[in-house]
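look at this stuff:

>
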Amino acid sequence: MLTITGKNFPGKEMKVNYLEAYCRAGSTDRNWGKTVVGHKTELISKDKNGKNIVLKSTLKDGVTVIHKIRAVADGIEFRLTVKNRTKKTSEAHWAQPCIRVDQFTARNQQTYLSKSFVFLDGKLTRMPTKNWATKARYVRGQVWCPQGVPRDDVNPRPLSKNVTSNGLIGCFSADESMLMASVWEPYQELFQGVIVCLHSDFRIGGLKPGEEKKIHGKIYLMKNDVEKLLKSYRRDFPGQSNDGKSKQKQP
């Protein structure tokens, strides 16, 4: 678990299952056990004040992922280097950082939806959104698949027919004084989970022998100012957000 804390932090801390799983393609209608690529993550280094840590994930197929994680003024930034050091093509297509928002929202599984949001038609939209899907291999939860990602390759939970306007998914604190939003470049899906969690799941897209890829992510933690969030998002992820449409660089 990655634990995020800070002065006057809503709920005192936020836990992130980092990472819940690395996954294969073809996952939308398949048993979850056949989708997951096993992995082990270890701590490589950390500084004394807890603002910078480095992790290393080793997947069972030999792929390694170096995670450089640091606290910044408006949240937590992630810089990943993914490399296939083997002579075989890796089937790792995406991965899941699971952000637990129960303390932040002071809500449970039945009540946190109204605190949670994505962007549809260029506007912040609270959940449950329009056209809320209810059927899938595994029920409960909601998945939004962006343009450029096959709809056969996402979480086997109810899949919305809507495409979000950008790559942000987030929620408001209990008193609505703060917001949290997560984003990755590139991303595989946005997901409202089956516990009190939210996901922006990052995309790897498979790796050829010897291939290396860079991935960038961020968890914004800031005062409840949606325009400021969008301004920061456009600054930090210029290749993904443009005129209200989701445009991300594919690996």
